[in-house]
Specification:
Layout (H helix, E strand, L loop, with lengths): L11 E6 L5 H14 L7 E6 L4 E13 L5 E15 L2 E12 L9 E2 H10 L3 H4 L1 H25 L15
Antiparallel strand pairs: 1-5, 2-3, 3-4, 4-5, 5-6
Helix pairs in contact: 2-4
């Protein structure tokens, strides 16, 4: 019965309180991650608006489904990381997954939910379970990206303790 319901969209969202951190400090930390630590390459479309405390970047990954012979068949997926800071915290989302079903046309993207429905209708899906396989992998990718971001944000150095310790003799 649960198998017949439409699965939830592939997304990871979180609202994180950070009392008194300041919008600019949170934004700068997130921007550093997006520019230097975001590992889902090729990345594109980095849009950072300091005054709004917002960042958006598109990442790329690979999912593996099975062909009719049971061999891995890589499929390119793109997703958005969206960040929004305020003075007392931030929220972020890893979502808007899209699939490039034809490796020869990587810019021809299909919404993930639409692609999942296509997989469900394939005649050998009972054997390959590709709809569930790619959904699990995309959920894992969203979770990994979120964990990488949170880990980076949580390792934020304390104010005043950056660099060389000064003049305490």
């Amino acid at each position: 019965m649960a198998q017949t319901n439409t699965p939830a969209p592939v997304e990871y969202s979180e609202r994180v309180p950070a009392e008194g951190s300041g919008k600019l400090a949170l934004y700068n930390r997130a921007l550093d991650w997006a520019q230097n630590k975001f590992s889902y390459a090729p990345k594109s479309g980095l849009k950072a608006v300091e005054s709004a405390g917002s960042i958006r970047i598109t990442g790329t990954g690979t999912l593996k489904q099975l062909d009719a012979k049971g061999k891995d068949q890589p499929v390119t997926v793109r997703f958005d990381f969206v960040f929004q800071a305020n003075d007392n915290g931030y929220n972020y989302t890893v979502g808007s997954f899209q699939v490039a079903p034809d490796p020869k046309q990587p810019d021809q993207l299909v919404a993930f939910d639409e692609y999942r429905l296509q997989l469900q209708t394939e005649r050998n899906n009972e054997k390959t379970r590709n709809d569930r396989r790619v959904t699990a992998q995309a959920n894992s990718m969203a979770s990994e990206a979120a964990m990488s971001f949170r880990s980076y944000m949580n390792s934020q150095p304390a104010e005043g303790n950056v660099g060389i310790a000064g003049g305490e003799n």
